[in-house]
TrEMBL record:
Family annotation (Pfam families): GpA_ATPase, GpA_nuclease
All copies of domain Terminase large subunit GpA endonuclease, residue ranges: 301-583
Database matches in InterPro entries: GpA_ATPase (IPR046453), GpA_endonuclease (IPR046454), P-loop_NTPase (IPR027417), Phage_lambda_GpA-like (IPR008866), TFA_Chaperone (IPR051220)
Provenance organism: Sedimentibacter acidaminivorans
Protein name: Phage terminase large subunit GpA-like protein
Length: 614
């Protein structure tokens, strides 16, 4: 009897121990501490898979831990690439799923990007982090509440939406808002207004709400993240000088480097101290103990800015190489480098082009196509009483040559006009060395009053790579969006982000002869490059407008009566090249007889494979 009583007492004690473990509150961990204990990096999403270590990038600690600060509601993160900002978002998501269950919304610029984030970043973390595994139901399980864009877990849900979807943004109350790449958000979510404001309204019912806005910046004056950051306490990451110990930001203006232009390699890179003037290399600076210092400490909004110079995953010599290449590629590439490497906005110094300069630099071709051209593409614009077209030649590093610009008068509702276009698109052009070339890819604008005729023309000529396109203006759109299926008319319709293309085009038009993307134009009058062409090529300028309280930068005609078809057509011909995506170096080598571009066993099909290049 005594033994049985003791056994009962022992079992009772063990039961209460187990109950106490279950009922005990979790340890008081911050987001960074949770990540250091539980987070596992996945091999397909990280160059350093395995256990997360905040000490690998010490600047991340304070950013993550401010999420736990009860006095902080809004956190702004304006950064370059390669500083781990997406991992910070993922750590926050993991923390709230495992440690503080709450309804969470992740906003990406588009629905497609939200799906990509879910599949390539969130799903691997849920799979490989043991603390999260099993808390979110398997998407393939029967009766699962887990979809690509919505994942339930005990005590909460995570919803991923696109900033271009007003219905998704207004779907439900949320406590934690994570908005990624806000500078790529459209100015308005449909007709509902600013997507950031719509998303913020979802948090109003929670007194302990958290709103985190993250992005690399874009253009000064139009950048959402810059506007948010300027209203924050403006913290910058500072490191001590290896000589005098004074803390300071790592700035590109204080970088000095030696570069071998012949070998195209960096010899030496150093950062000069703004206090003592001594310069030290990357290792000496990054081994110092850094700290965040606020420029506007009285603000209740917490904001952080950091660039690639402080990143452990991007070395200074790589940044210098990127800078040299961006400078060579032209203004548009340099703008991207400033945004993504320095984490700074780009300040526009010019808003358009003048025609006289382009007209004066025309050159005598004395042939149909100059010898450095490897590929021909074309753009076609459909007007009420005519078709306009341009044929463009392309060489290495996107160097281009205007080949032929023309107008085919007639009603596009009549077949004879399209037959005349066939005579242009399927004729043979001769290079200076006698090699014949055919147009390899064509984009036809299907907007306007003759959409059905344009669709029918493109559908019948898809094998000749004649593509139907539809332009869409504004920011937040990629240059080329490839169709996943045919339209109801039976045609594949490509969507073209025309403003993105125009930004690139103007960058190339302003490039110098030794820069990538330089544009050549012929002097011969029969080729169509006259004064009217260049006025049309420069008929638009980039302007700043305000829509729904947001700054919007867009392309507009300089005057209502201006004819901008040449500008549009060069954009379409460029889109045709991007859709084709040819290996220009290999094709040029083939044309010049330096190597065989097509395997010998199928040389007899050469014309079919290379679309008419003989």
């Amino acid at each position: 009897m005594i033994k049985s009583i003791n056994e009962i007492e022992n079992k009772t004690k063990q039961l209460f121990k187990r109950i106490s473990k279950i009922m005990a509150p979790p340890p008081n961990l911050s987001v960074s501490e949770w990540a250091d204990v539980y987070r596992r990096l996945s091999s397909e999403a990280s160059a350093e898979p395995g256990q997360w270590r905040t000490e690998r990038a010490p600047y991340q600690k304070k950013i993550m831990d401010e999420i736990n600060n009860p006095r902080v509601e809004i956190i702004i993160l304006m950064t370059s690439a390669q500083v781990g900002k997406t991992e910070i978002i993922l750590n926050a998501i993991g923390y709230f799923i495992d440690y503080d269950p709450s309804p969470i919304m992740v906003v990406q610029p588009t629905v497609e990007m939200a799906e990509t984030f879910s599949k390539t970043r969130l799903a691997p973390m849920l799979r490989d982090t043991p603390a999260l595994k099993g808390k979110v139901a398997d998407i393939k399980s029967r009766n699962s509440s887990n979809t690509i864009l919505e994942k339930s877990f005990p005590g909460g849900v995570i919803v991923m939406v696109g900033a271009n979807s007003s219905s998704a943004l207004a779907s439900r109350p949320i406590r934690v808002l994570l908005a990624d790449e806000v500078d790529r958000f459209p100015a308005s979510a449909g007709t509902e207004g600013d997507p950031v404001s719509l998303a913020e309204k979802r948090t109003t019912t929670f007194s302990n709400r958290k709103k985190i806005f993250v992005s690399t910046p874009t253009i000064k004056g139009a950048s959402r993240i810059e506007k948010f950051y300027n209203s924050s306490n403006q913290q910058h990451w500072h490191l001590p000088c290896p000589s005098c110990g004074e803390h300071q930001q790592l700035k590109w203006g204080q970088i000095t480097f030696e570069y071998d232009d012949v070998k195209e390699e960096v010899i030496c890179v150093k950062h000069r101290c703004k206090f003592c003037g001594f310069a030290y290399g990357e290792y000496e600076w990054k081994t110092g103990e850094g700290k965040w210092i606020a420029d506007n400490p009285n603000s209740s909004i917490v904001g952080f800015h950091i660039n690639e110079l402080a990143s452990p995953w991007k070395h200074w010599d790589e940044i210098v190489v990127d800078f040299k290449q961006a400078k060579k590629d032209g203004k548009e590439s340099l703008k991207v480098w400033v945004n993504t490497s320095l984490g700074e906005t780009w300040e526009e110094k010019g808003v358009g082009l003048e025609s006289d300069e382009l007209l004066s630099r025309r050159e005598e071709y004395s042939c149909d196509v100059p010898e450095n051209v490897a590929v021909l593409t074309a753009g076609v614009d459909v007007q009420d009483n005519r078709l306009e077209y341009e044929v463009v030649g392309w060489g290495i590093n996107k160097e281009s040559w205007g080949i032929e610009y023309g107008v085919l008068m007639g009603d596009p509702g009549k077949s004879f006009v399209w037959k005349a276009l066939d005579d242009v698109l399927f004729k043979t052009f001769s290079r200076a060395d006698g090699v014949p070339l055919n147009i390899m890819s064509t984009c036809v604008d299907t907007g306007g009053h003759h959409t059905s005729s344009a669709y029918a023309y493109c559908k019948d000529r898809e094998l000749q790579r004649v593509w139907a396109i539809k332009g869409i203006g504004g920011s937040g759109h990629s240059f080329i969006k490839r169709p996943k299926r045919r339209e109801q008319s039976g045609v594949y319709l490509f969507t073209i982000g025309v403003d993105v293309g125009k930004d690139t085009l103007v960058s190339r038009l302003t490039a110098k002869p030794d820069q990538n993307g330089y544009c050549h134009f012929p002097f011969e009058t029969e080729k169509g490059y006259d004064d009217a062409y260049f006025k049309g090529l420069t008929a638009e300028h980039r302007v700043t407008r305000y829509k729904n309280g947001q700054t919007v930068i867009k392309w507009e005609k300089k005057s209502i009566s201006a004819r901008n078809e040449p500008f549009d057509l060069r954009n379409y011909a460029t889109a045709a090249l991007e859709i084709l995506n040819p290996n220009i170096n290999a094709i040029l080598n083939q044309l010049n007889g330096e190597q065989s571009f097509i395997p010998k066993k199928i040389k007899k099909r050469r014309r079919v494979v290379s679309k008419g290049i003989s």
